[in-house]
Amino acid sequence: MAISYLTLSDMASLLTLAEFAALAATAVRASGAAPENRQAKAVPAERMIRYYTARGLLPSPGTRGRALTYGRTHLLRLVAIKRLQGKGLSLEEIFDRLAAMSPAELASLAAIPAGVIPADLGDPEPASETSRAAGRFWRAVPQAASAPAAAPAVTDLRAVRLSDTVTLLIDGPLPALDALRHAAAPLLDLLAATRAETRKDAR
Question: Which of 42, 84, 170 lies closest to 179 in space, CA to CA?
Fold first, then answer.
């Protein structure tokens, strides 16, 4: 007889990306955490959530099937980020501040009013080692090789257009395009945000 085991995340309520963005916007407003300076967007949106995840400010989401899932800790951290942005802290400073906080300190900083967070909202299971490694791939700066290696022979080079400014070259069989675009989403968001900041600085 097969036996099924339930984890805490199976019994708790979790949010899709769209649901999380909507609840986060409500929580930021209800908490009075919306930054008033023009350099930071007051209301969280899906692109912002992906960008913060790529920067390491938000934990990696969980997964259910092909859908990303978010929970209580994601919500607390996002509201805390907005509150600290309102105090003039940069994202680098916010990263350091959040990394040193306990869960109780995080909840105190976010200060989300009672009733805003669903009572059954939990946290998704931690990402697998493979998922964490994929996230680090887009953020980590590669170390310089001690000696130049011989360039491998190119046998079947293919180009995949990921955006108007990004084309990925793959030597060999292509993975599913949906999976490829999903994996590249943090990189595309990071590049888009960098271009926007560059244009802002040039004005």
Answer: 170
Where does residue 123 fall: left (phi above 0), alpha (psi -120 to 50 degrees), or beta otherwise?
Answer: beta
Say what the pTM is.
0.61
Rounded CA-CA distance 9/7 in Å is 5
**Contact in structure between 58 and 77 (CB atoms under 8 Å):** yes
| CA 147 to the chain's CA centroid | 35
Query: 165: closest CA among 200, 189, 134?
Result: 189
Question: For residues 168 and 149, what is the distance between their CA atoms, to the nearest angstrom?
Answer: 22
Q: Is the separation of the CB atoms in 106 and 84 below 8 Å? A: no
CA distance 115 to 157: 54
Give 160's strand partners: 168
Rg (CA), the chain: 20
pLDDT in tens, the chain (203 residues): 444 433 444 456 999 999 999 999 999 999 998 887 666 777 788 999 999 999 999 999 998 888 899 999 999 999 999 999 999 999 999 999 999 999 999 999 999 999 999 999 999 986 554 444 555 555 555 566 566 666 666 677 778 888 878 888 887 787 777 777 778 888 887 877 777 666 654 44
